[in-house]
Each structure stands twice: as structure tokens, then as C-alpha cells.
Amino acid sequence: MSIIGVVASATGGVEQLRQGLVVPLVDRGHQVAITLTPRAAEWLAPAERWELERITGLPVRSHPRRPDEPRPHPPIDLFVAAPASANTVAKLALGIGDNQALSILSEGLGSTPMVVFPHVNAAHARHPAWAGHLETLRAAGVVLIEWELREPREPGGRELPWARILAAVEGLGG
Ligand SMILES: Cc1cc2nc3c(=O)[nH]c(=O)nc-3n(C[C@H](O)[C@H](O)[C@H](O)COP(=O)(O)O)c2cc1C
């Protein structure tokens, strides 16, 4: 049993988080501690957030604690950031920790095993800094899950590659 820190950004498919990632991890015997970016927290319906809290038995975090408050999550053995927006990936690579999700990922980078699924399209990947961001994360030991890049506004939502993400978590010992 590992304690898995699940982090999710505001991208399409974040509504699949429970069925795609959280339930399978809990079913495999892991304790799951979820942190959302503030924007992702706005996107998830309150009932979905409560359901995630019921399943994991821990608060879903999206804001930093006050200094006099106890830490709401236990120490994390392995992080999985999925889906991670282009914005979150870029800030993680640059060491910007301007929300709770980024601060825990940044602190864990290089010392805690980490799987990241950048949920990006071809336009995000054409940004001149993008390849460098991925290289920075790879060099820090992050396992990146990449998928076929589509142009923005191509029709049809996609199931996120949960099976590959779960396999990568297992591969890191989670
Ligand atoms: C409907 C919708 C879908 C989006 N999907 C994506 C996406 O798949 N990938 C991405 O990088 N950004 C996507 N975005 C943009 C992000 O939500 C935006 O960059 C946001 O600032 C990310 O914040 P966060 O990284 O703090 O979660 C989407 C925005 C909207 C409105």
C-alpha cells in the first residue's frame, strides 16, 4: 500500500478523475490524497468533490493551509499529476509554486516518484519552451505519459489514457 498524491488541473477529462484514476487506485489498496488546482476545483461539482472525499477518506485540497492548521494529507510516497494542463506543466518545470497543487509537486520533484500526464494539444506543444519543459521534468526523473497530439478544436472528447497512467504508477512501485 502506498500513499498516492493525485493532482489534477483544469483540462477536459478532469471529470473522469474518479472513475479513471481514484477508484482503481483505491481498489488496489492505496491511500489516495487529492489536490486540485484552484481552477480545477471550480470546475468539479461540489457533489463530485464530496464523492472523492468519501472514497478516499481525506479532504480534497485546493488551497494552502494556514500556518496554524495541521497538514490535511499524510506524507506522499508517489505523485501522479493527471490531467496536467500545459500551464501546470510549464510552471512545474520552472519551479513556480503559486498554488497548493504546484507547491506539493515542486517540493516532490526529484525526490518523490512522479507520473505526469500533460493533457495538451498540438498548439500547446508548438510553444518554443514546451520541449524544454518536458526535458526538465524527464531529467528530474518524472515519468511522462504522452499521447497523440491533436489540433485545438478538433471535434470529439477523448477518454484520457488512464490505463497507461495506472501502469506507470505500478511501474514506479505504487
Ligand atoms: C473547456 C476548456 C478545456 C480546456 N482544456 C485544456 C486542456 O486540455 N489542456 C490544457 O492545457 N488547457 C486546457 N484548458 C485551459 C486551462 O483550463 C487553463 O490554462 C487554466 O488556466 C489551467 O489552470 P491550472 O493549470 O491551474 O489548472 C481548457 C480550458 C477550457 C475552458
TrEMBL record:
A biological-process GO annotation: coenzyme A biosynthetic process
Single GO MF annotation: phosphopantothenoylcysteine decarboxylase activity
InterPro entries referenced in this protein's UniProt entry, alphabetically: Flavin_trans-like, Flavoprotein
Residues in Flavoprotein domain copies: 10-137
GO cellular component: phosphopantothenoylcysteine decarboxylase complex
The name this protein goes by in its record: Flavoprotein
UniProt source species: Kribbella rubisoli
